[in-house]
Design a protein that fits this description.
The complex is a heterodimer. Chain A has one domain: NAD(P)-binding Rossmann-like Domain (Rossmann fold, 3-Layer(aba) Sandwich), CATH 3.40.50. Chain A is about 30% helix and about 20% strand. Chain A is built from eight helices and eight strands. In chain B, about 15% of the residues lie in helices and about 30% in strands. Chain B contains two helices and five strands; from the N terminus they run βαβαβββ. Classes of the chains: A alpha/beta, B alpha+beta. The complex binds zinc ion. Zinc ion binds next to helix 7 of chain A.
Chain lengths: ~260, ~80
């Protein structure tokens, strides 16, 4: 099944109103809205990070969003996974997100995949303009990194646990840029995190929104992004710090 | 005899909680890698061995050698979501 992206060379009156506050921005304007309508983002993970990302991308005027997740909505999700309500418990995340996004923007083309992302499904990235990693564990993050290198796609990584988070933009579409593995290859005990840890709901909202923000900036090519940088976020002490990352010549993934 | 090197140490996020302080200034008298310094700093503490390290706002390997005047920041890996 091949769904066609909207051809929005001429924005309708409805579009002009819907995107008015973005059109008024010097960095976006009507041209930006027209460009976004032709773009395709693949979002992997529909949890605490993926929910705000999906919501803000849907109302940004993005043309197509692919969503990948095989989880079922649970009671413990509702605190931070803001697209779900108590009546959604037990349902598939992808079906529920599709339904919610359609109410936010009926023009958005949504392609849903109720699967756990792996190298076997990496061809889902083939016609993406960029990929967003909103997953919750190291091994999937590593696979997404590998798949984006294979298909030469920019990768926007966000992670959050407890009261701390990280965001980075890996230009895996370009050569001689650092990848996720350049940063995380040295860490041994990668699965110390996730399942048993708490996470502050507002933190996942902040990190997810920064990922959505960086994706729009990258697609419309404005401002400085987190390319080859890592943003460290400490919401307990409301501290933000950016550090530079360079390509690790010993990295086994990107060399 | 070695000249003393001045090192400014920063702890970020949960590492700050573990160390009980945001930063400290050290004078070190021998050449150390950033991870050797981390092991010294945490010798008496029960802390996870995994830490990420930046020197002067740039990500570095664990064997990066410190120089006089460096600011070294220790921060936790984050992989959840
Ligand atoms: Zn790499």
């Amino acid at each position: 099944m091949k769904e066609k992206l909207r051809n929005k060379i001429n924005l309708s009156d409805k579009d002009l109103l819907a995107y008015n506050k973005h059109i008024l921005l010097e960095d976006i304007q009507t041209e930006g809205i027209e460009i976004l309508a032709t773009k395709h983002i693949v979002l992997i993970g529909l949890g605490g990070l993926g929910c705000p990302i999906a919501q803000y991308l849907a109302t940004s005027g993005l043309g197509k969003l692919s969503i990948i997740d095989n989880d079922i909505i649970e009671d413990t999700n509702l605190q931070r996974q803001i697209l779900y309500t108590s009546s959604d418990i037990g349902k598939n995340k992808v079906d529920t997100v599709e339904k919610k996004l359609k109410t936010l923007n009926s023009d958005l083309v949504i392609q849903k995949h109720n699967i756990k992302f792996s190298m076997h499904s990496s061809n889902l990235l083939k016609d993406a303009d960029l990929v967003i990693d909103a997953t919750d564990n190291f091994s999937t993050r590593s696979i997404i990194n590998k798949a984006t290198i294979k298909y030469k796609k920019p990768l926007i990584m966000g992670a959050a646990e407890k009261l701390e988070g990280q965001v980075s933009v890996f230009r895996n579409d370009l050569i001689n840029r650092p990848c996720y593995n350049c940063l995380y290859a040295d860490v041994d005990d990668k699965e110390n995190s996730c399942m048993d840890q708490g996470v502050l709901s507002m933190l996942t909202g902040i990190i997810g929104n920064i990922q959505a923000l960086e994706s729009i900036k990258l697609l419309l090519n404005f401002g400085d992004t987190l390319e080859s940088k890592l943003l460290l976020v400490d919401v307990k002490n409301i501290n933000f710090r950016t550090i530079r990352i360079s390509k690790d010549p010993k990295c086994t993934m990107c060399n | 005899m070695h000249k003393l090197m001045k090192i400014h140490v920063k702890y970020f996020a949960s590492v700050r909680d573990l160390m009980g302080t945001e930063s400290k200034d050290l004078d070190i008298d021998k050449s150390l890698s950033v991870y050797e310094l981390w092991k010294d700093l945490t010798a008496k503490l029960n802390v996870p061995k995994d830490v990420l390290i930046a020197v002067n706002h740039k990500y570095v390997d664990k064997d990066f050698k410190l120089n006089d005047g460096d600011e070294v920041a220790y921060f936790p890996p984050v992989t959840g979501g």
